[in-house]
Amino acid sequence: MSGIMHRVLNYGMNVLKMPGRVKELHEMTVESTRLQARILRELRDAASVTLERVCSIDGVTPWAGGPIRVVMLVHYLEAWASLEPVFRAMEADDAFEVTVASIPRRFPGAPGFSGEHVVDAELTARGVRHVRLPFADSSESLDLLRALRPHVVFRQSQWDADVPPGFSTRALSFARLCLVPYETMNIVENVRHAGTPTDTAVDTPYHRAAWRVFCANDVVQRAAIEGATLGAEQFVVTGHPKSIAIREAEGHWPIDGPRRPRIAWSAHHSIGDDWTRFGLFPAMSEAMLRFAETHPECDVVFLPHPMLLTFGGHHQSPVTQVEVDAFLERWAALPNTATYTGVDYPSVLRASDALITDGLSMLIEYQLLGKPLVFVERDGHRPFNDVGDVVVTGAHRIGDVAAAITAVHRFACGEVDPLRDRQAANVADLFPHPDPDRLILDAIRTGLSASRLEA
């Protein structure tokens, strides 16, 4: 019997031995129908977790030596920087046969699954050989994916809702699932909705079913150990590949013309009240537009989170999609502005002089470049976790939009940043591994070799 089977059975026995659980099972026979329904739902969810974990580990394509077949499913083009260093390393290593597949996506507010053709075009432009899985019936895509007989499958995020059903956690149970998180590390205490008390940064069905989840550092791994439902042996510390992409990016500024002070403006999608509540686009958009209009001697590039561009169609959005689109049109009409939504955003960050942002990932990613960072902080946002408390020490925290814009303007024009040394210390602490791509390949090799010996 495999290690995962032993762990699942032991978990089940421990649950049955717990006095609190025995009491609950007794209460189920005498309490109200509501209590019965709640406990039955908990048992059903626990069974689902166990099934996902067993299917994804014990029913996988066997590896008997030879090249390790890997498939990377790409729907989140803007996060390709998290996987590209791993892809390049696998391409250069004869021990791996890596295939990239472009697939559709659906972010909150979007009417349906779409966008595979955009992923295909960008991957082609970057010279990434890939297969296309654009079919409206994702079961057809799944059949083609299974025909590749991958030993390992990477998906870009843990969110099943973002991809068609054929690429869901359950559908991919024929392979060893891996995850390089699209963010370098989670920096907030995650939202825990009623009925789902788990930390979705480390404990979704995809995390539970995963064979390996690659962590940036020991602190991230400890958070997984504390928050995981069935243990966290799948969480491995390797460093995060996006750190390579950002550090090695060559600067490219999407506005032509003479060299002027360059401001990057990043906007998060959490503009409603149902998630982390960092997004300030509704409060910042007009102010940033006025700044760009009255400061033609400065360039400003808008870097919206991709979910922000569709969130106007969500029922909880404080702005409509029409209002978002109208702003983008007015922004594009100015000679000193641009909007960038592509895969090469690290190159835009590299070419900028300073960044203004409402969070989240940019608060840590920009510090890898050692440039001035202004954080426009929204009242009532989700609390920072231990990592976040460290990260924000490298940013200028300003609650007033006008004051934040004034500050980023000063830095873009050359004012020395007093937090530069603090940022360098943060980067050294949070990104201790300079070669995460190699460590990820080694972890896959070691894990497969160990499972072969166990078999």
From TrEMBL:
Superkingdom of the source species: Bacteria
Name this protein carries in UniProt: CDP-glycerol:poly(Glycerophosphate) glycerophosphotransferase
Lineage: Bacteria, Bacillati, Actinomycetota, Actinomycetes, Micrococcales
